[in-house]
Amino acid sequence: MPDKHALVLGLDFGTESVRALFVDLDGHEHGWSSSKYKHGQITAKLPGTNISLPPDYALQHPGDWLDSAAKATRSAWRRVGNASARIIGIGVDFTSCTMLPTQADGTPLCLLSEHRANPLAWPKLWKHHAAKTQTDRIDQIASQRKEQFLEQCGGTIGLEWFFPKMLETLDEAPEVYRAAEVWVEAGDWVVWQLTGCQADEMARSTCQAGYKGMWTSRDGFPSKPFLRAVHPELVDVVRRKMPGRMKAPGQVAGKLSQAMAKKLGFPEGIPVSTAIIDAHAGVPGVGAADPGTLVMVCGTSSCHMLNAVEYHRVPGVAGVVKDGILPGMYGYEAGQAAVGDAFDWLRRLTGQKTFAQLGRRARAIPPGADGVLCVDWFNGCRTPLMDGNLRGGFLGLTLRHEPHHLYRALLESSALGLRWIVDLLRERGVPVKKFIATGGLPHRNPLFVQVAADVLGENILIHPSQQGPALGAAILGAVAAGKRAGGFSSVRSAVRTIGGVRKDVNGRGGVLVAPDRHHAKLYEPLYLRYREAAAFVQRQRAVT
What we know:
Layout: E1 6-13, E2 17-24, E3 29-36, H1 62-80, E4 86-94, E5 99-102, H2 132-145, H3 162-172, H4 174-179, E6 182-185, H5 186-195, E7 203-205, H6 206-212, H7 224-230, H8 237-241, E8 245-247, E9 252-255, H9 258-264, E10 271-273, E11 276-277, H10 278-285, E12 293-298, E13 302-308, E14 319-322, E15 330-336, H11 340-349, H12 355-363, E16 373-375, E17 393-395, H13 403-427, E18 434-438, H14 440-444, H15 446-456, E19 460-462, H16 468-480, H17 483-486, H18 491-499, E20 511-513, H19 517-543
Parallel strand pairs: 1-4, 4-11, 7-8, 12-18, 18-19
Antiparallel strand pairs: 1-2, 2-3, 5-6, 9-10, 12-13, 13-15, 14-15, 16-17, 19-20
């Protein structure tokens, strides 16, 4: 029988911070905390230097990940308040594709004096968008060769993925590429550090590789002939610079090492799960064990995750991976590249200190934002066009419009983009039956969720936990602990038990947001206008 005092730890590595969550085997949250990265997003200058970064660069400091994880974990543990509590498993989710070059022992190249001043030796955050040329090259060659992995990734290579970022380093800083003994996703790197194993024993996540690394369970990573066609020096990169064993989230990656146990404040030997992409962790985190539920993981960007029993080719999705999210189903990933960070950009651009007044005045405006229409591609378009070069814009502005009109239009644009994604899935035969929102944004911005419900004409359930991905990571930690310790014979049983919608640690239950039927009718013609405006923006991209 599982220990009644057993807890599992979920570590959720986001864009700005790490969140640590302790949860019991019945799904009750016992304590959580977050810790911001000391260096945040590195977009202007390299730390400790006067070296300015080019446009589209977004880097991180690898030391921040472990330091912030330790701070968040220790803080959350102090809030548990149960001296008898015992940690039986640890799960990890991470933004993706965030990746880095290291030495064979895991030391990031950016921490070495000879490479510290080279931006391309640093970890590239998921939103690093400087590999446009490399993405186009890989996409063109893959299309010409009719590579099979294109079937899995919606027919187009993503700008934020693993191989474009690696190729960017090879093109722009070949000395860094050649010095790298290991290229690795940040989520896999963190698990590697937690377990302290050798590089060859590292667990490489099938989730991260399947959605961001052009890996398939049938063929593995891209073939040598394809990689040679992309660049001669890539021909043997998988064998020489990508060691490790492919494992699915929930499988045991290893056990907590003595060094990391000391850093976190726990005994060594605790099982650690293979990493999962942060957005994908939101699916088990909200208890979505069955097909047909679209899980909207909303934060700086949004990922829309869905499980289905059948494979359908859907152009423009970021991936369709068998067993990619939960076993026994095809996991579909779609997304929008700028949501919360676009809202914050507009707030700063218009000189607003907080969202309070902006949101209050925007709520009073009827659907249509008084004639202002927005195309929300301020960080490119993920689904359905997979084009990081696209740009956003506002139409219909007059001298009488104010910041809250722009904000309302931007909220509506994000919701209309979501509607496009849902329509695309349904048109291609993928059932979408229910909607659950998770992540910090739905709790902080109820107006956005209401607008989304109105645009979709569907109910949206806001899951009570504000830490959906962290909860999902914890669930995978419970599975990795094994049946004897955790009591779960399968991932799906753990998802239903731990992630099911019930009250959170503060007694809050899920909130069901119903559409305003009058507003839903008003949004129908606005949706057509949005699609027309998006087509116009796309044509402009083709001629510039």
